[in-house]
Amino acid sequence: MTTTRRIAIGAGLAAGLSASLMGGAATAQDTVRIALVAKALGIGFFEAAARGAEEAAEELGDVEIIYTGPTTTTAEGQIEVVNSLIAQRVDAIAISANDPDALVPALERAMQRGITVVSWDSGVAPAGREMHLAPSSDQLIGETIITLAADHLPDEAGKVAVLSATSTSTNQNVWIAAMKEYMADTYPDIELVATVYGDDLADKSYRETQGLLQSYPDLDAIIAPTSVGIVAAAQAVQDAGKVGEVNVTGLGLPSEMAGAIESGASESFAIWNPIDLGYAVTTIAYELATDAATAEPGAELSMGRVGTATLDENNEAAMSEPFTYDASNIDEFASVF
Amino acid sequence: MTRFLKSREAILLGALLALVFLAETRFSGFAAPGNLVRIFNDTSILIILALGQTMVILTRCIDLSQASNLALTGMVTAMMNAAMPGLPVPLLILVAVGIGLVLGALNGLLVWKLDIPPIVVTLGTLTIFRGLVFLVSGGAWVNSHEMSAAYKGFPRADILGLPVMSWIALATIAAFAVAVNRTSLGRAFYAVGGNPGAAVYTGIDVGRTRFWAFVIAGGLAGLCGYLWVARYAVAYTDVAGGFELDIIAACVIGGIAISGGLGTVTGAVLGALFLGTIKNALPVAGISPFWQMAISGTAIIVAVAVNRRRTPGRIILKEAKA
């Protein structure tokens, strides 16, 4: 051990001691490094969440945000990212997972090394994280997407189809299941004619939409709970000259959907606020990493300005319900995210 | 005529027609002229890229970077359009082709001057170009409402019942048909792939010929970058992710020999159309999406197996069998 290092540790101990003597308000001597791991880099939604995380970091003060992720939406890519974060000895990892199970071993290793692990947006199996913050409850999202379609159907009756991302995408499948359950009770006259998968690729989503328009000429609405899919579907409907006949709705980002709202291909769509989500998960990760709070069933975790999250028996919590965007407010939000 | 009937192109054409017929039995209206035009238009980009790839494969090389090249040029033109909506579309197309040519020339130079195996060079540039997309865009999308109407409208404009995009594909096919059969460069592609050693003795510069093949493939990828982004009206970092494999699959189905020196323009076009028809048939045929990849893969293997058994077509400079 070199002398300088010994002095540094001594100084650190002294600072820690004095801090605890002063009443223990400042428990962390060092910056708390929180890694925000996206499904993939370059997706507007996650970029917006990173902005929210930075906002939280500014409020909290001693926080450094490391925004990272693989270049494609694969679990393999995320495992590599997690391994490198373990090597960097970050204090907390907040991840939106590409696969609920594949990431568990890597994240368990992180937790064994004292790193706080939470998942957000798309969850990890309970063994691989301390808690999960869903952007909204799956139930609320399922209800919202079918309600968006129903609101623009005469007499709440008609034919709808779902354009999803990949067939193995956790959140997509849960939302679609919740949607089906809700529509059976609330909208008995709406028929779900098909569920197709665009794999979050613009060209495949476009082609699948064309297929839907051909296979079901009397289709009334397409519900795409995915940001790549909804944009491609709106473009395909516009190119097919079916604006006004087929309403494209689902989950999308205001900046990406502004064109579709303008052309009329989409009447309305919904999304929670990703900035709020990044903000909330960063705040929670900070509290858990600094031991200001513990993730256990029933615990109430503060999300700063967003409110309070209450953990259920699986250590999961929902942030808020999705927010609807249409012609009346799209311009205001299109410049935000 | 009988020679044509025995050729691999005739077999492929037969398979294509059978595929269309099969799709028609599952979904009435699939073989309607309007729908076939739509499929051709949808496959235009794949056709153009496959023709570029064919030139590269003929010279015994391979270009894995086409889709990344497409993504980069598409992103750059979209960003230019968003920043300066007044720029005329023809200028943006020239920029797209220009960037594509430069990126292709980079591949070509590395293969030619440094003698690095093409698969290694283009695997590297695949990642580099894709990385550059992140770099220039900062990860942000260029969205539909940020693009000008002219930018999005050009490939869709209707001339004599066909969208401009289809016309561009047809023009590319015609240009290649002439270039490959009637120019010395076209013959050099075959000669270099057929027997590189002998090609040197006939006065062909193997490295230079390969360089030009990469430049052509790059320029076409650049052109497709604009077409792709304008068509789907969105530019994001993962544009055409994994599309390089579709392009190579189209070439292989079309009977372009991966070992070089063997293949035709007609074959490449039919190969692309075959793949494009499968992609368009599966969504309406009511077949589970889980089968799509398996079906595409089976088509490739069957195509290669059939091709191996056929007598080869045009060969310039045959390699001696040991």
Automatic annotation (TrEMBL), chain A:
Keyword Signal in the entry? The reply is: yes
Q: Which segments constitute the Periplasmic binding protein domain?
A: 34-290
**Residues making up the signal peptide according to the UniProt record:** 1-28
A Pfam family in this protein? Peripla_BP_4
Recall the GO molecular function terms of this protein's record: carbohydrate binding
Q: Does the keyword Phosphoprotein apply?
A: no
Cellular component GO terms, alphabetical: outer membrane-bounded periplasmic space
Organism's domain of life? Bacteria
- State the name under which the record lists this protein: Rhamnose-binding protein
Automatic annotation (TrEMBL), chain B:
Broad class of where this protein is predominantly found: membrane
Q: Which domain of life is it from?
A: Bacteria
Provide this UniProt record's keywords sorted from A to Z.
Answer: Cell membrane, Membrane, Transmembrane, Transmembrane helix
Q: Does this entry carry the keyword Cell wall biogenesis/degradation?
A: no
User: Topology relative to the membrane, per the entry?
Assistant: Multi-pass membrane protein
Q: Which Pfam families match?
A: BPD_transp_2
Q: Which InterPro entries match?
A: ABC_transp_permease
* Location within or outside the cell: Cell membrane
What are the transmembrane regions?
39-58, 93-112, 119-142, 162-181, 188-204, 210-233, 245-278, 290-307
Q: Which GO terms describe its cellular component?
A: plasma membrane
Answer whether the UniProt record assigns the keyword Transmembrane helix to this protein: yes
What is the name of this protein?
A: Rhamnose transport system permease protein
UniProt source species: Palleronia aestuarii
